[in-house]
Amino acid sequence: MDAKELMPIVAQGALCLIIASIGLQAQPRVVLAAMRNTKLVLKGLLAVNIVVPVIALIICSILPINPFVRAGIVIMAVSPMAPLVQMKMWKGGLDTSHAIGLYVALILSAILFVPATLALLSVLYPGEVSISVEAVAKMVAITTLLPVAVGLAVSNWAPGFARRTAPFVMILGFIAVGLLAVLILYKEGGAILGLIGDGTLLAIVVTVAAGLLAGHWLGRPNPANSDALAMAAGTRHPGIAALIVHANFNDPRVMLSVLLFLLTGIVMTVGYLVWQTRRQRNGEHGSAAT
């Protein structure tokens, strides 16, 4: 197994830890209630499964991007993921539970949305691109539903232990994300830089920004909903993307563009989280002053 194949696996492990840590902080009954919030789930589906793929498709059609690199970008755009945790989730509580409910509903939708979207977009790629519903369902179950279920089960049966354990599991997840970023830059930095000249980085930045902005706007006026939807739309599932790539492509540029998308998405979503945290803190201070 070479570095390009190993890195998505490391990414999956890191995100599994982060997702499990959120589950440890959540309240199962509130999670189920959030999954039944039809209005919020529909907004999430719009931001995650429609806005991001459409923007990726448009920007990749405009810029003179290599077809294999374009394939990697669009594949990431149609690979939704339960996102990186909000900074405020370190405290747990109702916001965490609502976010988990939303994310579970959205990732379940990926089981049907990903194969259907690829079927519609297959004409854009050199050769037919497809993936089975069963393959996506297996990936979603292992990398998202299982860690969520484990976290929620522990939270329900041993809430005190879950509360104490969650920060350590989360720290391990973020350490793994940091190590992943270093590994990508060390092993594939030169090859990834070779993709940037034709507008690849611009296309990725525009796609991620569109997801963050769409989620943020659709979540208004509730800041917690804005955070949750922005993270859902701004982050992608590297495991699903790698599964599609390995089933359909041999050209290394496809996987390299997936890695560049992954790294850029991490940087931009962390930047969004920092901005939102500071913005909300300043708003609280302003309210206290008045």
What does this structure look like?
With 290 residues, the protein is mainly alpha-helical. It has a single domain (3-278), classed as Up-down Bundle (Na+/H+ antiporter like fold), CATH 1.20.1530. It is 81% helix and 0% strand. The chain has helices at residues 3-25, 28-35, 38-62, 67-77, 94-121, 133-157, 159-193, 200-218, 223-234, 238-248, 252-289. α8 (200-218) runs antiparallel to α9. The longest helix has 38 residues, at 252-289. 51% of the residues are buried. Mean pLDDT is 83; it is low at 87-91.
Summarize the structure.
With 290 residues, this protein is mainly α.
Write the layout of secondary structure elements.
Blueprint: H1 3-25, H2 28-35, H3 38-62, H4 67-77, H5 94-121, H6 133-157, H7 159-193, H8 200-218, H9 223-234, H10 238-248, H11 252-289
Helix pairs in contact: 1-6, 1-7, 2-5, 3-4, 3-5, 3-8, 3-9, 4-8, 4-11, 5-6, 5-9, 6-7, 7-11, 8-9, 8-11, 9-11, 10-11
Output the keywords.
290 residues; Na+/H+ antiporter like fold; 11 helices; globular; Na+/solute_symporter_sf
Please give the CATH class.
Mainly Alpha
Query: Beta fraction of the residues?
Result: under 5%
Which term fits the overall shape? Answer: globular
Instruction: Count the E strands.
Output: 0
Helix content: over 70%
CATH topology call: Na+/H+ antiporter like fold
Taking the alpha carbons of the first and last residues, their distance comes to 59 Å
Mean pLDDT: 83
Uncertain residue segments:
87-91
Q: Order of helices and strands, N to C?
A: HHHHHHHHHHH
User: Class by helix and strand content?
Assistant: mainly alpha
Main β sheet profile: none
> What is the tally of helical segments?
11
